[in-house]
Design brief:
Chain lengths: 298, 350
């Protein structure tokens, strides 16, 4: 009997497992679910937990990932209101909000991507067609309306997506901006010319600035020397004035003073490497002209 | 039959063997089941590594309160599947993603293939939308960039609940930031000196957008691996850099010239002042010495200074003539003109 109980227990356990597999299902915290009864959507489950259903083929659970899905659109050419053509790519971030509506209207993630891309394309072309090129790309901050353009695309897309598909659009971002292929060639030509102008500007500015620096330096050089010369003159004059005080002593015998100064000058100037031509009348060489008797006073 | 059965000892032996075999088999089955049950329970043991965090989903719901629902590194246990499901998230690591969406197609063969597919002739020196990535600046100039994002998952709950594909999300958010920032910056504001500013602006915007999405991801850093103007205009950009260097060099040379010139002026000025000061001292001292000398002479000789003057004159002439190399004397008779020829500097001394 004991052996029979165990067998029954194992059998019951396996039966419970099989039944649980057929009728129970889990909805994760990141998922949403739609329960269909004979193929017809009958119940929407948006909270996570353990749920039960009638076994297939009566009921079937369709579980969708409700996390944020990001999809980038293809690179497409579009025109701004001022007639310029740009190539745009956008990215839409969305998640399933109403699984029942989602299932009834679209049914699969891939179809949802296609539908949303169509929606974004429609509104993107409309919005960009009402804005100028400078609202998207401009060096003037006051012209730029980048984020406003994104909002203008997102708002109608989000409204339509939630109403028609049960999809909540979290964001629409512009992710790529390009130019038509032929335009890039012209852009390169312009860029080359701009660079040449900038290079020339740098060179001429460098030369001008260098010349200015040199001129200023020369001017400062001259000013410094002029100041030094003026100061030197003042110092010399000060010396001469102070020396003049002592010249009063010479008044006692002016002739002697003049004679001594002349001698001093003579000694100072006639140093080595000088050639002197003297007349024999010059003392003491005048002795050479006189006779011996003159020496004796005869 | 029973008598017959009992009468066959071989049958009894076989029956007993069968019973024993069944008993042993059943025991093995029991042990096996016990081991399976134990294994089943033990399969719930899991390790969260140092760089990870874990969430336990119990029948789809996050187990635990908001305060303790995130499991840190260590040994943990959860009910085995299908009751619990353990989700491990690499929160402790800085993750990275390379973004080459703004870089041109370097593989020439791939370009040709693509062009051939579209049955068109390719423009030389052009960029093909969808194949060549690039950034359009505010002044409608074009640049290429290769970047890397370093990020960390800081909230595993928000990350798990909200993010289906983090790489796609990060790429999109980053691309939007690049477009927004470059769309308001001219190429000269980016290349070459503004790269860091551009990087920071993109980083800040990406961080803000990720925060607004509430995805539990924190951007640590944006790295610009390479940033360059398009190849057809690369030479022109290089010539600007060269011109900038020439500009700097000219200014540097001019500054050096100015510095030398001004320093020389100060040096010369000092010399002039020094000479003036020397002159002042000299002239005063000279005058003073002369005055003292005169006073001394007058005190010694009184008014009779003729002899003193004569002796002094003779001494001076002697001194001068002794020092001189060339001395010429000539006599001239009164009233007669004479021609004198002297060869000077016959052998100049070094």
């Amino acid at each position: 009997m004991k052996k029979n109980y165990l067998t029954i227990f194992v059998g019951v356990f396996l039966a419970v497992l099989l039944t649980a597999y057929l009728i129970a299902f889990q909805v994760g915290v990141h998922e949403k679910c739609v329960l269909t009864t004979f193929g017809k959507p009958s119940k929407s489950i948006t909270k996570p937990g353990l749920y039960f259903k009638y076994p297939w083929p009566v009921q079937k659970a369709y579980i969708y990932d409700s996390r944020l899905i990001t999809d980038e659109s293809v690179f497409e050419e579009t025109y701004t209101c001022d007639g310029k053509n740009l190539i745009f790519s956008t990215c839409i971030g969305w998640r399933i909000d109403d699984p029942l509506l989602f299932m009834e209207s679209i049914g699969s993630i891939d179809d949802a991507k296609r539908n949303l891309e169509g929606l974004v394309r429609t509104y993107k072309n409309g919005v960009l067609g009402s804005h100028s090129f400078s609202n998207i790309i401009s060096t003037k901050k006051e012209d730029l309306m980048f984020e406003q353009i994104e909002r203008e695309i997102q708002t109608p897309v989000a409204q339509e997506a939630i109403q028609k598909y049960g999809i909540k659009v979290e964001f629409v971002y512009i992710t790529r901006i390009g130019l038509p292929e032929q335009t890039t060639v012209r852009v390169f030509e312009r860029m080359k010319k701009e660079r040449e102008q900038i290079a020339e500007k740098y060179r001429s500015e460098g030369e001008a600035k260098a010349s200015e620096i040199k001129a200023l330096a020369l001017s400062e050089h001259d000013q410094i020397l002029a100041k030094a010369d003026a100061e030197a003159k003042r110092i010399r004059a000060e010396g001469d004035a102070a020396a003049a005080q002592y010249y009063k002593q010479f008044d006692q015998n002016k002739e002697l003073a003049v004679f001594l100064k002349k001698l001093e000058t003579l000694e100072e100037t006639l140093k080595q490497k000088s050639t002197v031509i003297l007349n024999t009348k010059t003392p003491p060489f005048d002795l050479l002209n006189s006779k011996p008797e003159d020496k004796n006073g005869n | 039959m029973e008598t017959k059965h009992n009468a066959n000892p071989e049958f009894d032996y076989a029956h007993k063997s069968l019973v024993d075999a069944l008993r042993i088999s059943f025991r093995i089955l029991q042990i096996g089941m016990a081991l399976v049950a134990a294994g089943f329970l033990c399969s719930g043991i899991f390790v969260v590594k140092q760089h990870e965090s874990a969430l336990v989903l119990r029948f789809g719901k996050i187990a635990g309160s908001p305060a303790d629902r995130i499991l840190k590194a260590g040994l943990h246990w959860a009910w085995p599947y299908p009751v619990d499901k353990v989700v491990k998230i690499p929160t402790g690591r800085i993750l990275s993603i390379d973004i080459d969406d703004f870089w041109f197609a370097e593989d020439k063969d791939r370009r040709h293939d693509k062009d051939a597919e579209h049955g068109r002739k390719r423009e030389s020196n052009s960029l093909q939308p969808g194949l060549d990535g690039y950034i359009v600046c505010a002044d409608v100039n074009i640049i290429h960039a290769q970047c890397s994002l370093r990020y960390q998952i800081i909230d595993p709950y928000l990350y798990y609940v909200n993010v289906a594909d983090e790489r796609k999300l990060l790429k999109s958010v980053f691309a939007n930031s690049v477009i927004a920032v470059s769309g308001s910056s001219g190429v000269d504001a980016i290349l070459p000196a503004g790269i860091e500013q551009f990087r920071k602006s993109v980083e800040n915007r990406t961080r803000q957008l990720l925060s607004a999405i509430n995805c539990g991801i924190l951007l640590q850093r944006v790295d610009i691996r390479r940033i360059t103007p398009p190849q057809p205009v690369q030479k022109s950009f290089n010539s600007v850099i060269l011109a900038e260097q020439e500009h700097s060099q000219k200014i540097s040379e001019a500054k050096s010239f100015a510095s030398t010139k001004i320093n020389a002026a100060y040096g010369e000025s000092s010399k002039i002042l020094s000479e003036a000061n020397f002159y002042r001292t000299n002239v005063i001292e000279d005058a003073k010495a002369d005055a003292d000398y005169m006073t001394e002479i007058l005190s010694k000789y009184g008014k009779n200074t003729d002899m003193f003057a004569f002796v002094t004159y003779q001494n001076a002439v002697k001194n001068i003539l002794n020092r001189l190399d060339d001395k010429f004397l000539f006599s001239a008779e009164d009233g007669k003109r004479r021609e004198l020829r002297i060869l000077l500097n016959k052998s100049p001394k070094p």
